Automatic annotation (TrEMBL):
The lineage of its organism: Eukaryota, Fungi, Dikarya, Ascomycota, Pezizomycotina. GO terms for molecular function: hydrolase activity. This is Alpha/beta hydrolase fold-3 domain protein. Residues 103-315 form the Alpha/beta hydrolase fold-3 domain. It comes from the Eukaryota. It holds the Pfam family Abhydrolase_3. It comes from Aspergillus sclerotioniger CBS 115572. Keywords: Hydrolase. Gene3D superfamilies: alpha/beta hydrolase. InterPro entries: AB_hydrolase_3 (IPR013094), AB_hydrolase_fold (IPR029058), GDXG_lipolytic_enzyme (IPR050300).
Length: 345
């Protein structure tokens, strides 16, 4: 496990570290042997997928003392230009240090699972620890609503935040975006939105990506030497088979389009400051490492935290020491994003 700030120095290509990341983590291996029955293995129908992950996430939500002080939490609904309703949950920081900075947050779940409750604790924690307003988005899910419904909902949420800045105390010049896995893919980030809707014109100051989906093209996996998708075919929580099922439900069409595979964008030099969390035993590992390399090449301010031997989204198990470390990394990384944009504004 480690973390490096590469905004002012070059650390070499992140992809070259994958052999180190592929090593085993003894704590995780012991935990998995003892608690295999509570570690998600996604199989079956969409309802079975959703039930399995919902149980795991809600178990995580019930662990520890809830964060209830120092913030105000309310639900709202954004309405798109085509009258689609997008539920939102706003976590408003009550800290005197809050300066209107706001992060639009997208939960994980392979574009097919998840809701506002599954990552409620992390939104509360970031709100409190970073004096940051959070707007969590309950985007439409596949297969009922395939591509690009979720991306369109992310655009609706972005407009809602921008249009309601005075009502909710947001600073329209301090908008950030963040997400986990497929949620991170939805807005990676200003780049993706620019390709789909160039007229948006809302500046994004930084992005938080936790185990992001960044390249869905098998052809480019081969061309770029990305091997983790083929290596992790039976790992818990997420593996190649479950990713293939998610893509089947999501129906993204052209896998090389930048809204599907942001790693292949030709405009990565316009990416805002970025903080990535990358898991060592994750089929998505190599595309995240390659993305970090590309951001470095483009001289995008970058911070990366890596977790050798850990599966995708291992942090749904709060009892792991690596989860505690990753939680602190997350807080520190978001604070870095906020501080970096303030220094350069």
């Amino acid at each position: 496990m480690g973390e490096e700030d590469t905004s002012t120095s070059t650390v070499g290509r992140w992809l070259s570290q994958r052999d180190i990341l592929a090593g085993e983590d003894s704590e995780w291996e012991q935990f998995y042997r003892r608690h295999r029955n509570i570690v998600p293995h996604l199989t079956g129908s969409i309802d079975q997928f959703r039930q399995t992950m919902h149980q795991a996430k809600m178990r995580a939500q019930q662990h520890g003392r809830p964060v209830v002080h120092g913030l105000d939490v309310r639900d709202y609904t954004a309405i798109s230009a085509t009258d689609v309703e997008v539920p939102l949950r706003v976590y408003k920081s009550l800290s005197p240090k809050a300066d209107g900075a706001v992060m639009i947050y997208f939960h994980g779940g392979g574009w097919a699972m998840g809701d506002l409750d599954g990552e409620d604790n992390i939104c509360r924690l970031l709100c409190i620890e970073s004096s940051l307003h959070i707007v969590s988005v309950d985007y439409r899910l596949a297969p009922e609503n395939p591509y690009p419904a979720a991306i369109l909902d992310s655009i609706t949420a972005l407009h809602w935040v921008s249009d309601n800045d005075r009502t909710h105390g947001f600073d329209g010049d301090k908008i950030y975006v963040g997400g986990t896995s497929a949620g991170a893919n939805l807005m990676v980030k200003a780049v993706v939105l620019r390709h789909l809707s160039p007229e948006i014109g809302i500046p994004i100051q930084g992005q938080l990506l936790r185990s992001p989906v960044l390249c869905s093209s098998d052809v480019h996996h081969h061309k770029m030497g990305l091997k983790s998708m083929d290596r992790y075919v039976d790992t818990p929580i997420l593996n190649r088979q479950s990713m293939e099922q998610f893509f089947h439900w999501y129906q993204p069409g052209n896998p090389e389009h930048p809204t599907v595979s942001p790693l292949l964008s030709t405009e990565l030099d316009r990416t805002p400051p970025s903080f990535l969390l990358i898991c060592g035993h994750d089929p998505l590992r190599d595309e995240a490492l390659a993305y970090a390399d590309e951001l470095e090449r483009c001289r995008v301010p970058l911070r990366v935290a890596v977790y050798p031997g850990m599966p995708h989204a291992f942090w749904i198990f709060p009892e792991l020491s690596t989860t505690k470390a990753a939680t602190q990394d997350l807080i520190d990384g978001v604070r870095w994003l906020l501080a970096h944009s303030r220094r350069t504004s």
